[in-house]
Each structure stands twice: as structure tokens, then as C-alpha cells.
Amino acid sequence: MDYYKLADLLFPNITKNPLEYEEIYPQRMLPVGAKVTRLGPSPTGFIHLGNLYGAFVDERLAHQSGGVFYLRIEDTDEKRQVEGAVEAIISSLEFFGVTFDEGVTKDGEKGNYAPYHQSQRSEIYQTYIKQMVRRGQAYPCFCTEEELNEIRETQECLKENPGYYGKWAKHRNLSLEEIQTRLDNKEAFVIRLRSQGTHDCEDEDIKMISVEDGIRGTLMMPENDQDVVLLKANGIPTYHFAHVVDDHLMRTSHVVRGAEWLPSLPIHVELFNTLEWPLPVYCHTAQLMKMENGNRRKLSKRKDPELSLDYYRSEGYHPKAVREYLMTILNSNYEEWRMENPNAPLDSFEFTVEKMSSSGTLFDLDKLNDISKDVLVKIPAAEIRQFLIDWSKAHRPELTGILEGDEEYLIKILDLGRNGNKLRKDFVFARQIFEFISYFYNDYFKIEDSYPENVSDDDAKSILYAYLESYDHQDDQTQWFDKIRQIASDKGYAAKPKDYKKNPELYKGHVGDVSTVIRIALMGRATSPDIWEIQQILGEEKSKERIIKALPFFNE
Ligand code: GLU
Q: From the alpha carbon of 256, which atom of ligand 1 is closest?
């Protein structure tokens, strides 16, 4: 077979030589040990936690080593593309603090290894494919869907391995004339790899290859024997081929990707070998799992809203909290380091792929929430205010007005219980923070809890009356509490809880019940931070107004 002739027949318009691309995209001039990593998302409109998880690994590996981290858009599957998805990927990752040095950006492409959209690299892929055809390493296959189904069915009947390989690869050895005739008939064709893997042998004779995975160590896998499709009938490459060519020409040193790609690793190894290119270090990250009814399962797009990155943005998780949490699941020694270095910037932690888990990584929303509390308590109120405003603009625009309104008021609210020795860790994410503080705003104030059961309506009324009568906004915290105790004993409630505990039969309840009545009137809730402090923020007028409104007497 004259492969040169075949290559020209199949790709008459491809005139470049692969060597030209080697020159256009030379080795990068980087310090020894610098890593080049990339994120290769497909613009499907769904950005998931796994993308961010992988992006962190890429970002840390590159930036810790003085290397380069770039964004390549893998848009070879037209059917799955969604308008605006690329912008959404960039802005979402940026929000969580992931920045690229090179590749696709909001303002177009940046860098010497462009184009960074796979859809714009057809000529490059076809140049390499043409070379493979010339060398007899790839060939055209005209099999129709029906023919492929037929092969599969026969294989099933005979209990043979499925796929297009060896004796099953019908078009592996078509003659030039036959190919010519089919081309003249305008038959559609794909280009397949002519795999060098050994076919048609007993299981125990299958050759094994060993690959060093950055995270998993030495992997022993059966070599590839499938004549996989490299170029689809529309001239667009498959993932297998596109990423191999791109990662070679863009000089990627570490390919970080999800474990779902592990089974196809032998294909990629064969492709790198066939093209005589050095293999990058593949790092297959673990699947994200969650616990459900005591069992681990994979996070699912359908069942778990928390798999989508949008979830964290619309709930208003602070990017610092998400980063901090992801780091704890990325590196097993991170939490220990954090305990020793509570205030150090995250980037000063030395991240290593060796400390990553290779079995499933447990994703735990409760733990994220706990970490978020720790992170938010350290962020100054003014910064949290701005964060809430930014969040509201995108997700709850009806709140922006009041959040932006009285700056000093909101800062005081956010600082409540956060400046003593024992810090309150009330804040988790923006939506929850607003719910937590909403009673400070009349439009959102409502009575949510009921008065204690042991306090009669008449008692509640008279407690509130007495409270209103004795109210002096100038009272300090001790004076204020003495008055509450006084009201308690006047109304038959123990002034001290321990007195009540000793002789419950002597009282209707204790001072705690009295303050709960006041708390519900003022905040609408049975639990809240310190009442006196809240009153100081609400101000005299609003505080009294709420007591008056709560007085059943006035509502009658
Ligand atoms: N486009 C592939 C994906 O979205 C990228 C895999 C890779 O990083 O190589 O899964």
C-alpha cells in the first residue's frame, strides 16, 4: 500500500509538515522543575466541583514551581456546547480565586501556544493525522453504524471482547483502489489508529504496560489494542487524539484529570509512543464521593445540587472558605498544617500530589460549613458587608438596597459577638447570614418562635409592660440585667436559674423565660446573641416600638 498516496487522497488540503508546528510551538523556557498544567473544560454549561477541584491542583502545581497554568477550551463536541459557557467557566473559576497565566481569557486568547480553542485547531490535528496515515499508523474506516452494531452483536454471541480491533477491524486493510472508490461515492469515513497492541490472544498473554501516575504511583494496565477513532467523520478529532496533540504542542508537563479517564490511559500512552513524544505526567484525581445512609456514593449531577459550582455562588459561600475546604480534601496533611499555622496564607502551604487521595474523596457539606464559620469569623465586618452586597446584586437584588443603605448599622450587626474573647461563629454563607441578621430590618422582621409554654399570655403581657416601663436605653449591661431579674421575681419567676432548679415548685419559671419573652418581642426568635447588645444596635426607638407592637394589649 502506498501510504503517501493514501494520505494525499484523504487530506489533499493539508500542506503543512508537523515539523513546522514543532517550531511554532517550541519547548518552553522555564526553570528546572517548573510544571506546565492546564484545565481543559468542555463548554457544556455545567461547571462542577470537580472542575474546581482539578483546577486547584493545576494551579498549585504550576504556581508553586514557577511554571505556567493555562486554560484550553475543549469544544470539539458541537452538540454539547452552550452559549456563554466559556465566560461562565472563566468567571466562576476567577470567583474562587483560580487565575490562569495563559490561554482563553475574557478578552480573547493570550499566549504563544494559541489557538487555545480546540475547535480552531483542525488544521493542526489533520496535519498530524496525515503524517500518521503516511506512516501506516492510521487508516480510514467507512463502517456504518449498522456494520459496527453487527460486529458488536457477533462479538457478544461469541463472547469475544467488544470493540474494533484485530480481525474485527474490517477496514484495517482496505486497498487503495477500494478506498478511492468509496471516496468517489462520497462515503463518510473516520480515521482510526492502527493499534500495535497484540490482538486475538488468550487473556494471560495480554501485554501489560506500566505507567507512573503522579497521584497513584505505578499503574499496571493491559496495553491498548483497539483501533480507536482519532478523527470523526466531520474532520473533528476525538478527545483521545486532541488532548495528546495539544498537550504535546502546548508543552504540558502534568495532565491533571478525573479518574473517569483512567480506563483510556493505555490509548493515550500508545498515541504518545506512536507519535514519538514524551509522555506527560498523568495525575488522575479521585472521584468526589458523598456519604448517604452510611454508604459512600459518587456525587451525581441529578441528585446533588452541591456538585454544581453555581450552587456555592448562589448560596453565597465565600471563596476563601471553599478554597480552604478544598485544600483539606486535596492534601491529607493540610489540616495539621493549618492548626500549626492558623493565620498563614493558604498559598504558603506546600501542596504535593503524593499527599492526594487516590481512592474516592469524601465531600462533606457539613465540614465545609464548619470551615466556613472559622474562615468568616476572621474576615472583618466591612469586608463581609461588601461580600453580602456583591452576592445580593447577583442573587437577591431585592436586598441590595437595604444592605447598601446604612453602612454603620450593618457593620455593627455583623460585628455583634465577634469582638470579645469568645467569638460567635454564626456566619456560614451569604444567604444564611442574611437570614440570621434579617430581624434587624423591619421589612424582614417577623415573630418566628412561640413564647415559652410556662409563660401565660397574661404574664407575657405584663412582663413586656414592666420591661417597657423600666426601659432606659442608657443602662449598662449589668443595670439592664438587674432589671430583668427584678421583673422576674416580681412576676413569680426565679431571678436565678439555679434557685428554680432547687425549688421548681416555688416558681412559674426563671429569669431565662422572662428574657425569652423579651427576645421574641424584639427579635422574633427564641435564640439570638445578647439582647442588650442587640438593643444598642437597634436603637431606643426601634426597640421600644417592637415591644409595644408585641404587647398583646395593644393588639386587641
Ligand atoms: N474535556 C475533558 C473534560 O471535560 C478534559 C479532560 C482533561 O483534562 O484532559 O473532561
A: 8
Residue located nearest, by CA, to atom 3 of ligand 1: 41
**SS3 state of residue 384:** helix
Q: What is the pLDDT of residues 18-49, one digit of tens each?
A: 999 999 999 999 999 999 999 999 998 888 89
Of 268, 285, 302, the residue at which a domain comes to its end is 285
The answer as to whether 160 is a domain residue is yes
Residues 270, 401, single domain; the answer is no
CA-proximal residue: ligand 1, atom 9 (nearest): 257
Distance 256 CA to ligand 1 centre (A): 9
Residue of 36, 38, 42, 56 to test ligand 1 pocket, by largest number of atoms within 8 Å of CB: 42
Ligand 1, atom nearest to 260 Cα: 10
Interval between CA 413 and ligand 1 midpoint (Å): 45
What's the CA angle centered on 133, arms 129 and 139, to 5 degrees? Answer: 100
Residue-range definition of the domain harbouring residue 430 = 381-444
| pTM for this prediction | 0.91
Q: Where are the alpha helices (DSSP H) in 419-492?
A: 430-437, 457-470, 477-490
| Mean pLDDT for the stretch of residues 235-240 | 96
- Ligand 1 atom 5: residue of nearest CA: 40
3-state secondary structure of 426: coil
Contact partners, residue 95, CB within 8 Å, separation at least 6:
313, 319
pLDDT in tens, 63-120: 999 999 999 999 988 777 788 899 999 999 999 999 999 999 999 999 999 999 999 9
Asked whether residue 425 is domain-assigned, the answer is: yes
Q: Are residues 236 and 137 in the same domain?
A: yes
pLDDT of 554 over the 50 cut: no
| Packed helices 122-134 and 239-249: angle between N→C axes, nearest 10 degrees | 100
CA 528 to ligand 1 center in whole angstroms: 47
Closest ligand 1 atom number to CA of residue 39: 8
Report the candidate in 276, 274, 260, 267 with the shortest Cα–Cα distance to residue 165.
267
Note the Cα 196 to chain centre separation in Å. 39
Mean pLDDT of 478-497: 97
Distances (CA, A) of 496 to 73, 420, 513: 67, 25, 11
Residue 484, domain member (yes or no): yes
SS3 for 285-331, per residue? ECCEEEEECCEEEECCCCCCHHHEHHHHHHHCCCHHHHHHHHHHHHC
Q: Candidates 215, 257, 271, 272: which one to mutate for ligand 1, based on the most atoms within 8 Å of Cβ? A: 257
Express each pLDDT in 397-433 by its tens digit: 999 999 999 999 999 999 998 877 778 899 999 999 9
Q: Is 294 left (phi over 0), alpha (psi -120 to 50) or beta?
A: left
Residues with CB under 6 A from ligand 1: 40-42, 74, 243, 255, 257
**Residue 38 to residue 102: CA distance in whole angstroms:** 9
Cα 55 to ligand 1 centre (Å): 11
The rounded percent of the chain whose pLDDT value lies above 70 is 98
The closest-lying atom of ligand 1 relative to the alpha carbon of residue 74 is 1
